[in-house]
Amino acid sequence: MAPARKTFRKIFMRRRRSDPSRRGVAAVEFAMVVPIFVVFIFGMIEFGRILMVQQTLINGSREGARQAVLEGATEDGVVEIVSEYLQAASINVPSDYVSVSPDPADVRGNEKITVSISVPFAEVSWMPPFIYDGNLQATTTMRSEKLD
């Protein structure tokens, strides 16, 4: 073997186990990286939860508005439809968070009806809210289908 190759081998191919000053370095590096990695993973989970709940609220408000524009609809019936939709998606919110404006029973034909849902994210989060601590909102407006 050429002398240059032997020198290369001695410098770069030596075993690190023989160096006593490097013992425990991997454990220290692991202890420094794991908390950052765990926070990153939980942040991704929480952000995914925000998107999922927001989309469910949008769909729930749309279902409520579809119910509200029909002949014979009542405000209580619309709130019940929205609550059932959200409970089917494992989002349990009080009916106080759902508003219907104006009351579908008082609406004439071709008037707009708005169904809104506003939920504090802390009530639907799986973890303590460290990414987002506000309200998630969804609003849908449709025209009444009553024949007046």
Could you walk me through the main structural features you see in this protein, from its secondary elements to its overall organization?
The chain is α+β, with helices and mostly antiparallel strands and 148 residues long. The chain has a single domain (33-143), classed as Pantoate--beta-alanine Ligase, Chain: A,domain 2, CATH 3.30.1300. Helix content is 49%, strand content 15%. The chain contains 4 helices and 3 strands, in the order αααββαβ. It has helices at residues 3-12, 25-68, 75-88, 121-124, and strands at residues 98-101, 112-120, 135-143. The protein has a 3-stranded antiparallel beta sheet with strand order 1-2-3. Helix 2 runs antiparallel to helix 3 (75-88). The longest helix has 44 residues, at 25-68. It is rod-shaped. The termini are far apart.
What is the H/E string? HHHEEHE
Kindly name the structural category.
alpha+beta
According to CATH, the fold-level topology is: Pantoate--beta-alanine Ligase, Chain: A,domain 2
| Spatial ordering of strands, largest sheet | 1-2-3
Percentage of β-strand residues? 5-15%
Helix content: 40-55%
Mean pLDDT: 85
Number of helices: 4
Number of DSSP-assigned strands? 3
Tell me about the largest β-sheet.
Answer: 3 strands, antiparallel
CATH class: Alpha Beta
Q: Could you state the oligomeric state of the chains shown?
A: single chain
**What value does the Rg take, in angstroms?**
29 Å
Name the overall outline: rod-shaped
Poorly predicted spans: none
Number of domains: 1
Distance between the termini: 100 Å
Which architecture would the CATH scheme give at its second level? 2-Layer Sandwich
